[in-house]
Prior knowledge:
Two copies of one chain form a homodimer.
Chain A: H1 2-31, H2 35-51, H3 53-69, H4 74-80, H5 84-99, E1 107-112, E2 118-125, E3 128-133, H6 138-149, E4 153-157, H7 163-179, E5 187-189, H8 196-201, E6 210-214, H9 217-226, E7 239-243, H10 249-261, E8 270-276, H11 277-293, E9 297-300, H12 302-307, E10 311-312, E11 326-332, H13 335-345, E12 350-354, H14 358-367, E13 372-375, E14 394-396, E15 404-406, E16 412-419
Parallel strand pairs in A: 3-4, 3-6, 4-5, 7-8, 7-12, 8-11, 9-10, 9-11, 12-13
Antiparallel strand pairs in A: 1-2, 2-16, 14-15
Amino acid sequence: MTSEVQREDSDIATRMTLLGQQARRASSLLRSSTTQQRNEALAAMARELSTQREAVLEANARDMARGKTEGLSEALMDRLLLTPERIDAMISGLDTVASLPDPIGGIDDLRTQANGLRIGRMRTPLGVIGIIYESRPNVTVDAAALCLKAGNAAILRGGSEAFESNCAIARCIASGLERAGLPSHAVQLVETTDRAAVGALITANEYVDVIIPRGGKSLIKRISEEASIPVIKHLEGLCHIFVDRHASLDMAFDIAFNAKCFRYGICGAMETLLVDQAVAETFLPPMIARFKDAGVTVCGCDRVQALTEVEPATEEDWQTEYLGPYLSIRVVDDMHAAIEHINHYGSHHTDAIVSDHFGHTQRFLAEVDSSSVMVNAPTCFADGAQYGLGAEIGISTDKLHVRGPVGLEGLTTRKYIVLGDGHVRT
Amino acid sequence: MTSEVQREDSDIATRMTLLGQQARRASSLLRSSTTQQRNEALAAMARELSTQREAVLEANARDMARGKTEGLSEALMDRLLLTPERIDAMISGLDTVASLPDPIGGIDDLRTQANGLRIGRMRTPLGVIGIIYESRPNVTVDAAALCLKAGNAAILRGGSEAFESNCAIARCIASGLERAGLPSHAVQLVETTDRAAVGALITANEYVDVIIPRGGKSLIKRISEEASIPVIKHLEGLCHIFVDRHASLDMAFDIAFNAKCFRYGICGAMETLLVDQAVAETFLPPMIARFKDAGVTVCGCDRVQALTEVEPATEEDWQTEYLGPYLSIRVVDDMHAAIEHINHYGSHHTDAIVSDHFGHTQRFLAEVDSSSVMVNAPTCFADGAQYGLGAEIGISTDKLHVRGPVGLEGLTTRKYIVLGDGHVRT
């Protein structure tokens, strides 16, 4: 038994090494591909998806049937489901990525040094990107498109529940690549549901430059801990709105409501509302009534409880990303106390101040240590499309490399270029 | 015995946690510090170093005496040694860093979206940086200065052989911080030579944002493997010069010589020379003679051996960073073969082409996957000061976050700022 498992593991290791080598070769070839070729491949993928729509829907139906038998939750089943409309959305996503400017080859900061050397920084692909994701099959297309557009080879590892859908989509991708004259190994799907493949992928330092996990917090934590390759993490969003004593309270009323109620399940949803004590008495009773009317359960600190009837908030509430119709509210002494609360309890994702005081907004922007800091706007705007990135692969909660919504730029790196004329160093 | 070791380890863990907490608090305070305060602190450190010069030299003399007793190598003893000139260099380094523009607070790419939201990216400190380094005591000052200038708190762990020197320098740094009204915990030296402290530092995810090891390859590899915090790595430089068939051979003659012989021990030194077969017969015999005259031992591939008398190069030679008077030479079919050799055997540090052919230079720049790619300049220019960065903390061989010479910018991150006027998402 043990030897059989070992043999299987070693088979998987061999297959993953092969995938890695193929990806590395494809990545080399992509470095000399043209913008036009990469855009043509994206357009050809869109055409293939359209042509093979039925085959993809049938594969998805098989996944759905198996999911039903295995008793997947309704939420998971909904994420797994493909419909003609969802395939249309994937196709238009490909067109959007094709229409974005090529991020590769641009040169910034080219300056001439005193000795005449011209030195600048050229944007270049990262190389090979490993993407590990859960049930949504559309990620297969989105991730492939973004990686390819930025000149990277991709190794995709989707969830086992979407296995047949992903394989059908991957065939469209491969044939799109071939039609544009690009190596089909530029995008490879890991065609096994064995979990050992994930372990092999996240430790394949020789072949993979970066791992991007997409999915729940537990998946991302586990991968970050076990990977020896750098990981771009997309962890939780415990977002705050702070209503300053100099806020327009009408504006704050709408911003706070929108930040919570636009959609409960997004990482940019507000989870804690902080209110300056100078305006709490005026602001909070109608605000809390509005939340309650919308079906939001509110808990609050002592000072909130003294103003209106709410559940008592516990220490745990300040640390909880509810992702649902729940909200914690705290009255704070002033803006400094608000910043302290946010930097201490927050997840460094997205936090906002509502204020008309110039100095307060500037300090809040400078001192809140989050990937997005907002003034007079709700946290639910934290999103690549809203930021004008065209498309995003996630929202990074890391500080290094890329922070906040990750578009094409986050999938690239910059190298120095040095242009001389026979200079020597003396 | 075991329980004593365990108690010591747990003492160290407790002390490192305290250091981490103090650093985190100092980092918060630094976020609201002004450019002027940070520059004043740097100037005050310089004055302290000047005033306490004798005390620092005495501490260094004690380190040197112990090093002698312990039989440190001559190279290590030289790196450990402080002289009045080397202290002057540290002082002028502080002045240089003070005079650089503040990297913090600048806003790039601020654009107005269709809905009127203004979105940009603000440069901000990383937070807490852990620096682990070997014998040179000047790193204590350099690292402290760069971290502080970029608004970060630093935890410094120097080599045990420089312990007394580092403590004396750290006292100057602390008193400089205090004189400028900044928290003295903004720069903390780990005041123990116990190696367990390194293990605690590189896994203190709650308190430390990034680890920068400075030293030999083995130190950096070990730290990268054991750290759970992101590491900015500075690994080896296996640098190449490729002499294209369209090169000015006179220029190539001087560039290749300079790349090898400017200084053998720097990471930008050329280790392998690649020559297009079309010019090998003309170029190589005099070039090799010049290297031999300079005392460089040359090995070469079959085609080089057919031209002149050299040692045969082995597969291992193409993979070796000599850091000494040795050079491997290979004749390649054309530019593509050169790029393939570099991307396969190189360390992705710095590589150069000598060529007057526009298309060849452009392809070389685009396709060589190295942190610096040069045209008509020797690889020994790879250096932060030469690149106009003012000062550098090392040369990153990573692709993520920062690549190539790391100056102040590499010690910062960017957050999105979103400026609204009561916008809500619909």
